[in-house]
Amino acid sequence: MTGTLLAELHGVDVLLVEDESLVSFLIEDMLFELGAGAVRHASRLDGGFKLAAEKKPGLAVLDVNLGGQAIFPLAETLARDGVPILFITGYGREGLGGAWADYRVLQKPLTLAQLAEAVRAALGARRG
Questions:
Q1: What is the DSSP letter of 61?
Q2: Contact, 10 vs 35, CB < 8 A?
Q3: How many CB atoms neighbour CB 94 within 10 A?
């Protein structure tokens, strides 16, 4: 899947909130490989809120658990603003509450193909 660009992601500003630096950089590289316009990082909930307030993202990729702190307050704000959301977690779908059942969840470690499929679905649902 190397070199795969997604038309849906072309030029999209992505908010990535992930507390593990290596995972964050790996996902950033994948998003750029898929065609993201920009990837803005936060490793904590307050940083995610700050970046989202500065500029509404076209897509949010959110780690469910940030060092013991749940991402859901930020996810609720982003969802209210109509931002497509992808959750990433080491725990699978079980880490999400019922309110998030319709959202895509990727389990770490993830592959480029898995990320591409989830991004396409999230951004396609926004347009659909």
A1: E
A2: yes
A3: 7
Task: Specify the 3-state DSSP secondary structure of 31.
Answer: helix
Domain locations along the chain: 16-127
How far is the C-alpha of 101 from the C-alpha of 75, rounded, in Å? 13
DSSP assignment letter at 6: -
> Max CA-CA distance within the chain?
36
| 74 neighbors 49 (Cβ within 8 angstroms) | yes
Question: Is the domain covering 16-127 a CATH 1.10.3720.10 domain?
Answer: no
Contact 86, 119 (CB under 8 A): yes
Identify the segments of the chain with pLDDT beneath 50: 1-2, 127-128
Average pLDDT value over all residues in the chain: 91
CA-wise closest residue to 13 among 48, 56, 50, 62: 56
Q: Are 123 and 10 in contact (CB under 8 A)?
A: no
